[in-house]
TrEMBL record:
It comes from Macrococcus carouselicus. Keywords: ATP-binding, Nucleotide-binding. GO terms for molecular function: ATP binding; ATP hydrolysis activity. The lineage of its organism: Bacteria, Bacillati, Bacillota, Bacilli, Bacillales. InterPro entries: AAA+_ATPase, ABC_transporter-like_ATP-bd, ABC_transporter-like_CS, FeS-cluster_ATPase_SufC, P-loop_NTPase. Belongs to the ABC transporter superfamily. Ycf16 family. Residues 5-247 form the ABC transporter domain. It comes from the Bacteria. This is Fe-S cluster assembly ATPase SufC. SUPFAM superfamilies: P-loop containing nucleoside triphosphate hydrolases. Coiled coil: none annotated.
């Protein structure tokens, strides 16, 4: 049976200011969803709140993974339950190699005695790095330290492919990428697509969706999902912008954050 991630009436505040004002969204394994919207509408707030960033205070609502409220879990427990976040600005960790980080992350999700052995890990990592056209030396470099923007984004997709989560949240994974890097990142996401994987892509631009065809596209404005559709919705947004949605739904301009 496919897993389901349900966001129900989610309200989130930062320093007392409400950013998310009742987000509702259901994502099933086997589906790719894309969220688009103008700057300051709460898209990145949504991803951070789901994964438990302490800056974001959930004041109302639930995030259910197969019926269990992940908001009651610690951050590491959310990851172990099958959630993955590719951050807009990945952190640099000096002194920890990319390979050591990935092997520790994989084993943290496995029961004692079921850890991946070194040869299995190396074989899998080499295969995925080759698929993503990554320099083999990146395995022994410190995590994200000195990485270019494109290298950091590819590394996020490498982590995704190595960890194989139930659901991935990709926060502006296309940010700052040239066309070649965008194609490689998209190739990795498409490789993950299947009945055991669900994905929420947060993006400003339709160009990413030229390479990854979403099953559902949602528009966020003023802290809510205000419109949903298929890939044709993203294409219209690229051609016409967001004003037609504001007019259609009588939405007045307001800074959400």
């Amino acid at each position: 049976m496919a897993s389901v991630l349900e966001i129900k009436d989610l309200h989130v505040s930062i320093e007392g200011k409400e950013i998310l004002k009742g987000v509702n969204l259901t994502i099933k394994q086997g589906e790719i969803h894309a969220i688009m919207g103008p700057n300051g509408t709460g898209k990145s707030t949504l991803s951070s709140a789901i994964m438990g960033h302490p800056k974001y205070e959930v004041t109302q609502g639930e995030v259910l993974l197969d019926g269990e409220n992940v908001l009651e879990m610690e951050v590491d427990e959310r990851a172990q339950a099958g959630l993955f976040l590719a951050m807009q600005y990945p952190s640099e960790i000096s002194g920890v190699t990319n390979a050591d980080f990935l092997r520790s992350a994989i084993n943290s999700r496995r029961a004692e005695g079921q850890e991946i052995n070194l040869m299995q890990f190396i074989k899998k990592m080499d295969k995925q790095m080759d698929f993503l056209e990554m320099d083999p030396d990146m395995a022994t470099r410190y995590l994200n330290e000195g990485f270019s923007g494109g290298e950091k984004k590819r590394n996020e997709i490498l982590q995704l492919m190595m960890l194989e989560p139930k659901f991935a949240i990709l926060d502006e994974i296309d940010s700052g990428l040239d066309i070649d890097a965008l194609k490689v990142v998209s190739k990795g996401i498409n490789e993950m697509r299947g009945e055991n994987f669900g994905c929420l892509i947060i993006t400003h631009y339709q160009r990413l969706l030229n390479y990854i065809t979403p099953d559902h596209v949602h528009v966020m404005m003023q802290g809510r999902v205000v419109k949903s559709g298929g890939e044709e919705l993203a294409q219209r947004l690229e051609a016409e912008g967001y004003d037609w949605i504001k007019q259609e739904l009588n939405i007045q301009d307001e800074a959400a954050e």
